[in-house]
């Protein structure tokens, strides 16, 4: 199975892309709704949570781990890759590649959680091979809670997005990395406020593109993956709101189960 984890329900945007681009593969999802958001936590806590999430997926039969969380990708991806013994995919590098290819004026904006932006991972990854590209980063700590609450089109969400986006507009970025897999849920709000001419890079789309390429070039791994529609969806806290938001993000109803992790 393909295992996907996130700090909450936002990672379902990655699941949606997997359903679209890799139909037929059995999938298991874990959303850590009891401890979301990860972006406000310390590095040590994020690593602890990411280890627990990944180990839960492996115990349930996952043979590939997709970190559908920019915060966990920024802080814990290298550690998990070294420890788990299975292919691990993170959202940072695929988004960086897409943004570098897209920019015309060499000004890339990044929005993400405080932990993701504070790690400097997007800037350091871009600057490693492209010193001439300016990276303008903006932490957006309120957006994950708004998405988790299902506030996809409220006036308050629009006001907060406008405030976060304005510094990037002032710097005239022509490419914007949505540095959190929750953010595609409010693309319809972000797009008009950053400007129609700005290319938005969706990290959920890009990580699935990379996974698809990997499976095509690694038939030994691909043939071991379970096929079928027997998907499993787990969360660490199942409130009445979670299934409603999950349906909005996926465009379909799924059975959500509460799971305890160790």
Verbal overview:
With 262 residues, the protein is of the alpha/beta class. It folds into two domains: 143 residues, 3-Layer(aba) Sandwich (Rossmann fold); 112 residues, 3-Layer(aba) Sandwich (Rossmann fold). It has twelve helices and ten strands. The strands form two sheets. A six-stranded parallel sheet has the order 4-3-1-2-9-10, sandwiched between helices. A four-stranded parallel sheet has the order 6-5-7-8, with helices on both faces. Helix 12 links the parallel strand 9 and strand 10. The longest helix has 17 residues. The chain is globular. It starts with a strand and ends with a strand.
Attribute tags:
262 residues, alpha/beta, Rossmann fold, six-stranded parallel β-sheet, four-stranded parallel β-sheet, 12 helices, 10 strands, 48% helix, 16% strand, globular
Chain-wise SSE layout:
Blueprint: E1 2-6, H1 12-21, E2 27-31, H2 43-59, E3 64-67, H3 70-84, E4 88-89, H4 92-102, E5 107-112, H5 114-119, H6 121-129, E6 134-139, H7 143-148, H8 155-170, E7 175-178, H9 187-194, E8 199-202, H10 203-217, H11 219-222, E9 232-235, H12 241-250, E10 256-258
Parallel strand pairs: 1-2, 1-3, 2-9, 3-4, 5-6, 5-7, 7-8, 9-10
Helix pairs in contact: 1-10, 2-3, 4-6, 4-10, 8-9
Compact description:
The chain is an alpha/beta fold. The chain has helices at 12-21, 43-59, 70-84, 92-102, 114-119, 121-129, 143-148, 155-170, 187-194, 203-217, 219-222, 241-250, and strands spanning 2-6, 27-31, 64-67, 88-89, 107-112, 134-139, 175-178, 199-202, 232-235, 256-258. Helix 1 crosses helix 10 (203-217) and helix 4 packs across helix 6.
């Amino acid at each position: 199975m393909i295992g996907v984890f996130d700090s909450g329900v936002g990672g379902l945007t990655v699941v949606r892309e997997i359903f679209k681009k890799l139909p037929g593969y059995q999938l298991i999802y874990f959303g850590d709704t009891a401890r979301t958001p990860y972006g406000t936590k310390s590095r040590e806590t994020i690593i602890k949570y990411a280890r627990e999430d990944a180990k839960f997926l492996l115990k349930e039969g996952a043979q590939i781990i997709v970190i559908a969380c920019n915060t966990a990708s920024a802080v814990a991806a290298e550690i998990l890759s070294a420890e788990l013994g299975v292919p691990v995919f993170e959202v940072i590098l695929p988004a960086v590649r897409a943004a570098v290819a897209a920019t015309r004026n060499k000004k890339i904006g990044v929005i993400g959680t405080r932990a993701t932006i504070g790690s400097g991972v997007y800037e350091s990854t871009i600057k490693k091979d492209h010193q001439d590209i300016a990276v303008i980063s903006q932490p957006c700590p309120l957006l994950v809670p708004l998405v988790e609450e299902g506030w996809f089109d409220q006036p308050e969400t629009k006001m907060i997005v406008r405030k976060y986006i304005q510094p990037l507009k002032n710097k005239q970025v022509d490419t914007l990395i949505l540095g959190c897999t929750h953010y595609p849920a409010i693309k319809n709000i972000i797009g008009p406020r950053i400007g129609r001419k700005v290319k938005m890079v969706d990290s959920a789309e890009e990580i699935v593109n990379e996974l698809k390429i990997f499976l095509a070039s690694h038939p030994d791994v691909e043939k071991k993956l379970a096929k079928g529609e027997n998907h499993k969806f787990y969360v660490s806290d199942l409130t009445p709101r979670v299934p409603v938001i999950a349906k909005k993000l996926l465009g379909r109803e799924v059975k959500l189960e509460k799971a305890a992790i160790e």
